[in-house]
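== Folding task for one protein ==

=== Format: two labelled lines per protein ===

==== Paired sequence and structure tokens ====
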Amino acid sequence: MESLYGVTPAVLAFLVAAAALAGWVDAVSGGGGLVQLPALLIGLPGAPPATVLGTNKLSSIVGTSAAAITYRRAAVTDIGTAVPMAIAAFLGSALGAVVATHLPGTFFRPLALGLLVVVGVWTLVRPALGEDQDLRWHGTDAHARHRVAAVTMGATIGLYDGVFGPGTGTFLVFGLVVLLGYSFLNASAIAKLVNVSTNLAALIVFTAGGHVLWALGLTMGAANLVGGVVGARTAVRRGSGFVRVVFLVVVAALLVKLGYDVLRGA
């Protein structure tokens, strides 16, 4: 087990199982970090925070990439929106990683908590939200407006991901549904490609600092990949209604987690 940084077989089995579940959750609605990051903190209690985060990003990018490919093969990804949005998110995430060295993550917890309350309530009171696709803009300049909104959203949420992170996939899906008019299924597909770019930007930063446990991260990544493929196939098969339900469960879990963090830090 030395090649896996000394983790015991029992801890490794726990981390692999957590990575598989995280991949499934992330592929369906976003929020896989709710499962995988706490598991790494439990499994590697002596590791520096940056090492835990870097290893988490390595595992996540494997599963997210597989989910993005699965969605694309099912022809539910709007590439014309996803690619420019992903590029903007990559740049935003890289900038966010730099900003993170000057602002503590606790600065963003109350803000994220407030936004999640809005997201949860808005989704609950609008049961038809995201069930069908109805893009926001129509007419001659619709494409330009749509593209500007997508790029702005990608850069903003990418910046948030680079600085803080929790709920990034959830905010992406919600923004794509509410602001741009995508169905939950199509929004989740686009969000996966954008997530790949934000994870890549963060992974580059962590790798440059030597904060990635490669053997462990790739082992977990294999499990995350399986979970991501299964999750994407489940979402495609079950449709937007199923994605909406999982989305609400993830929002509730994020509210509990961030609410606890805010109260504990108070």
Remarks:
- The chain has one domain: 2-265.
